[in-house]
Specification:
Blueprint lengths: L10 H20 L4 H6 L1 E4 L39 E4 L1 H6 L2 H16 L2 H4 L20 H20 L11 H4 L7 H17 L12 H4 L16 H20 L6 H10 L6 H17 L3 E7 L12 E4 L5 E6 L6 H19 L5 E6 L7 E3 L15 H10 L6 E6 L13 E7 L10 E5 L1 H9 L4
Parallel strand pairs: 1-2, 5-6, 5-8, 8-9, 9-10
Antiparallel strand pairs: 3-4, 6-7
Helix pairs in contact: 1-4, 4-6, 6-8, 10-11, 12-13, 13-15
């Protein structure tokens, strides 16, 4: 833990340490399945910079007359960075109840363990750092992502009856659905913020959780925070947390649904994605193809055995398949074309190479349907945001309605709450994103597709 000044720990530092230690114990007791993560946080006491008598300079945390530390609202969330450093502003720590500090520890652990920095749609420019000064205006997109990520975490904390301080995002208080991811909350908060703004109200207070939420370094993170957990440390820690959650579930102990979902995905065994994708598509196609029916289009071979009666023959329908392709821009066209070749190759093996496919691209809205024979015939169009709810709704509106819908996406999108009438296979590209519980899912590593392109495979 860093100390203020060069003469060793001060009485203020010692008082801050005691409060942080007490907050750790409180947080570990409230959420035992996250105890190892709470104790992995590395508190960094920020150094006080020399300021004038007003205490308005950046980093000055002393009062006007007494010299005692005063709270800095910019650090009320006890922000963390991606190296698991928890940045402690002394005045804020001494003015905040121990229980509230512990709540923020659990909150920051949520950002770190769930990889919100890697999932963030906001990417820093070369050498970009977020400023930290009184009155500084944060980028609106980054601020909204922070709120969406907060909603994902706070939803699970509220499920444990751990309600946050005043001014933080609460899905329940905002009337939003529960058990959603940050990617799902993001468009909801955009709409809600616009509606509240017209009435002169703010969605929530402006709270900055640090680079742990968006990956953009803050200037104060240079203060002794070069150390922290390595990539291997984080990998082992996450597996330990996930295994502990699974043990609690097996013992019928209560765990919030968001953490259940995370643990299941984190411990999901690595499998051959081509084999799984092929199995899922073949299963979906064979389910329909196996539904035989009577038809008069082709007379029965036993028609001669009947007098004046033409009996129908038994037919096996050819499954009607529709491809919905995410062209929002987060996945390159090269990766999409490679995956399309894989998917259509599997379909050809089941339905025959002469089978026509319907396909359409989708970003925030579906584009016109394309009828093709080969993957190379599909024109990839679109860009911008992603909403697979619109894509699946358009697929269900087609006539005839498809038997099987195959969605190619990185999963950074909201999904319909209910299962569509048709069978749905979701090809998740990359390590991020998510798919709905009602879909069959095959996760495709982006580097595997990129490697295939680099080798010139078709």
């Amino acid at each position: 833990m860093n100390t203020t000044g060069t003469g060793g720990p001060t009485p203020t530092d010692e008082a801050v340490r005691r409060r942080v230690a007490a907050a750790r114990l409180w947080a570990a007791h409230q959420a035992p399945y996250l105890a190892s993560a709470v104790f992995a946080l590395r508190p960094v006491i920020l150094e006080a910079a020399a300021g004038d008598d007003t205490g308005a300079d950046i980093g000055d945390n002393t009062g006007d007359d007494t010299g005692e530390p005063v709270a800095d609202p910019e650090f009320r969330a006890f922000p963390a960075d991606t190296r698991w450093n928890l940045h402690i502003e002394p005045g804020t720590a001494l003015a905040t109840p121990v229980e509230e500090i512990g709540w923020w520890m659990l909150h920051q652990v949520g950002h770190l363990v769930r990889g919100h920095a890697a999932r963030s749609p906001v990417r820093p420019g070369p050498g970009e750092q977020a400023s930290h000064a009184a009155g500084a205006t944060r980028d609106e997109a980054a601020h909204r992502w922070n709120q969406a990520a907060d909603a994902e975490i706070n939803d699970d904390l509220e499920a444990e009856e751990l309600h946050g301080p005043a001014g933080v995002i609460s899905p329940a208080e905002l009337g939003l659905p529960v058990n959603r991811t940050a990617e799902e909350y993001l468009p909801m908060l955009d709409v809600l913020a616009e509606a509240l703004g017209r009435g002169g109200r703010a969605l929530s207070e402006s709270i900055d959780c640090g680079s742990a939420v968006d990956g953009v370094d803050r200037t104060y993170e240079d203060s002794g925070s070069g150390d922290g957990l390595t990539t291997l440390d984080r990998e082992l820690l996450e597996r330990t947390i996930a295994a502990g959650i699974q043990d609690r579930i097996s013992a019928r102990s209560e765990v919030p649904s968001g953490w259940r979902r995370w643990a299941e995905e984190r411990l999901r065994p690595s499998i051959n994605w081509r084999a799984r994708l092929g199995a899922l598509i073949r299963r979906g196609l064979s389910t329909v193809a196996g539904q035989v029916d009577f038809s008069y289009h082709k007379p029965s071979r036993r028609a001669g055995a009947y007098d004046r009666i033409i009996p129908p023959s038994m037919v096996r329908p050819v499954p009607d398949t529709v491809l919905v392709i995410d062209t929002s821009g987060s996945v390159t066209n090269e990766l999409l074309r490679r995956l399309l070749a894989e998917v259509t190759g599997i379909i050809d093996g089941v339905a025959g190479p002469a089978r026509r496919l319907r396909a359409f691209c989708c970003d925030v809205a579906p584009h016109p349907v394309q009828v093709v024979r080969r993957a190379s015939d599909i024109e990839l169009v679109g860009g911008g945001g992603t909403d697979m709810r619109a894509g699946l709704a358009a697929a269900m509106a087609l006539r005839p309605r498809p038997d099987l819908v195959i969605v190619l996406t990185d999963g950074e999108t909201p999904w319909p709450e209910r299962r569509p009438p048709s069978h749905v296979v979701v090809c998740l590209i990359g390590d991020g994103g998510h798919a709905p519980d009602w879909a069959s899912v095959a996760r495709i590593p982006a580097d595997a597709l990129a490697g295939a392109i680099g080798r010139g495979e078709s």
